[in-house]
Amino acid sequence: MAFADAVDRIIAGNRVYSKLAAEQDPNHFVELSKGQAPEVLWIGCADSRIPETTVCHSKPGELFVHRNIANCVHADDINAASVVEYAVAHLKVQKVVVCGHTKCGGANAALGDADLGTTLNTWLHPVRELRRKHKAELEKLPDDDARAVRVAELNVHQSIDVLKHHPAIKKAMNDRGLSIHGLIYDLGAGELRLLEEAGGRKSNGLWSPAL
């Protein structure tokens, strides 16, 4: 069975990983088991092509992660809210990152109103509303690929706006300088692009407006 083969590959891969990690550092797993102190909360897309620890060249324990379809943060999503509260109020992360990406299936689906099923229709409704709100801007872009990238950017900004109203984030921003950052991952180039820094300032030569 294909499913059994896939699971077998995962288990075999884990054995290779654990063996190599232990050979490189015999205390690696002992130290990880003592607890975690990540500096960054990463909110990204569930897309299988963008594993955050891989694309960021990060180690286990460095990123606290929440992923979903199209990296959305909705005001009424208790799943995302609980992750944010734990990461910010209890783990005391210093940065929150929202990362969208090119070739995003969710952003592309939001360009139209095709029936994706009740759950996905509901989940992507705020992103489709962004498309409607920015219709004039999007229509000036050359093709659907460019429009999907712009929708992905707008969606990152919208998610950041929601995050800034989360009580734990508001408190951490005021008390200890927590900052929120928007990124887009270019799937075709394997590179991250900074969209926004809280407070609005230039970064990597790009103007980063405050929200």
Automatic annotation (TrEMBL):
It is an enzyme of class 4 (lyase). InterPro entries: Carbonic_anhydrase (IPR001765), Carbonic_anhydrase_CS (IPR015892), Carbonic_anhydrase_sf (IPR036874). Binds 1 zinc ion per subunit. GO terms for cellular component: cytoplasm. Zn(2+) binds at residues 45, 47, 101, 104. Its cofactor is Zn(2+). Keywords: Lyase, Metal-binding, Zinc. It comes from the Eukaryota. SUPFAM superfamilies: beta-carbonic anhydrase, cab. It catalyses: hydrogencarbonate + H(+) = CO2 + H2O. GO terms for molecular function: carbonate dehydratase activity; zinc ion binding. GO terms for biological process: carbon utilization; cellular response to carbon dioxide; cellular response to oxidative stress. Its EC number is 4.2.1.1. Reversible hydration of carbon dioxide. Belongs to the beta-class carbonic anhydrase family. This is Carbonic anhydrase. It comes from Aaosphaeria arxii CBS 175.79.
